[in-house]
Amino acid sequence: MFRHVAVIGAGAAGLVVGHELLREGHTVVVYEKGEQVGGSWIYTSETESDPLGVDPNRYPVHSSLYKSLRVNLPRELMGFQAYPFVARNDEGSVDLRRYPGHEEVLRYLQNFAREFGVDQVVRLHTEVLNVRLVDSNKWKVKSRKKDDVVEEETFDAVVVCNGHFSVPRLAQVPGIDSWPGKQMHSHNYRIPNPFQDQVVILIGHYASGLDIKRDLAGFAKEVHIASRSVADETHEKQPGYDNMWLHSMVERANEDGTVVFRNGRVVSADVIMHCTGYKYNYPFLETNGIVTVDDNRVGPLYKHVFPPVLAPGLSFVGIPQKVIPFPFFELQSKWIAGVLSGRIVLPSQDEMIEDVKAFYSKLEASGKPKRYTHIMDYPQLIEYTDWLAAQCNCQGYEEWRKQMAYSAFKNAFITRPGTYRDEWDDEHLVAEANKDFIKYTS
Ligand code: FAD
What we know:
Bound molecules: flavin-adenine dinucleotide
Oligomer: single chain
Radius of gyration: 22 Å
Shape: globular
Largest sheet: 6 strands, mixed
Distance between the termini: 33 Å
Number of helices: 9
Helix content: 25-40%
Strand content: 15-25%
Number of strands: 22
């Protein structure tokens, strides 16, 4: 059975969903509010009118890329399984590095869309305003084009791929409202030059914080990083830098411009930058409370994809975090495409509800807060992707990819956090990957 399916967003997730739905024989419309495909990978020097990203009337900017950004996964690991992210000098690729800059990723995604004909079903400049279930299990999608023309179209199913790196989450800091310095979120960070000679405090020490601290160190007078995953007494000068320190969390901010850390240190700062992640946000989705976002848990979702009560008509791709995004989206897309055609059968609604309940109970029992619902660790990632592959009866993550994921995470966060993009010790896995890629690239 073939369906008429709406996909919301033409980033990496929406593009691969589009490809898998078309391959399965469905008819597809991919709605994209921007002027080109690629989503987060379309760099812009523009920033939002509210640097913290909280003013509901701010002019929204989708991408959170900073100018210097190089990928944080090796390209062999990062690419779709059916379309390896290999350095293609002959196809206009200009950044051959194993961890290339962001422009290379955008080229790759746009080539993917063109080569598989997904670009033919994308409606650019078309923002989805409302998605709702109507009679007889059909979905109405209301959208607005660039010329302000509003249209409605009816679909059998909707796949939501609107991304979740655009709406900032902020750290709660006592006293911050009367602190006189400048506050911003990393969503609105682009280049280090405006921070020349300033004292900057970064709250958060994960992907963006790790990059931005190095970007800033060459310009700022001092960079202080507040991390919640270090001991309270932590106060460490960062190796290789004479103007950068790692601290425990910020305890409070004062009216006199000082900021106090849990380690007791007091710093008079010009800027606080929140590198504290993002919120899931579905302003267009009308489900009468069936799907909610509560403390950054999108739910209830069976295996992070299908709301049991609305399955299979509504699904989400790309919600889990700390995954290997592109091939992860690809497996979720294959599952959705197969379920929609009836080739793959979902459990009953009750069974899916029970599965979600059991998952939430397990999280609670392990002491994980709700907001970690969609954060996967390495064993969960492998278990989940193997499970998806079994559902789809397709190739899961290859053995080299599983091992490379492990070595890449270790290299980036433990062994060589400062230099992992240019030094590694998994050449044997690169060789295996390249051998594997021949079947897709020759
Ligand atoms: P997006 O790329 O955000 O695409 C969503 C699309 O939906 C956008 O084009 C948007 O315009 C569109 N859209 C939203 N709302 C609507 C609407 N109402 N109507 C129509 N269109 C809409 N991943 C990696 O694999 N490697 C990396 O090195 C890496 N580095 C990253 C660095 C940063 C700073 C960030 C923020 C993320 C990084 N990621 C990285 C994660 C990256 O975001 C994902 O890899 C992936 O690009 C997300 O794709 P997506 O399609 O889910 O979302």
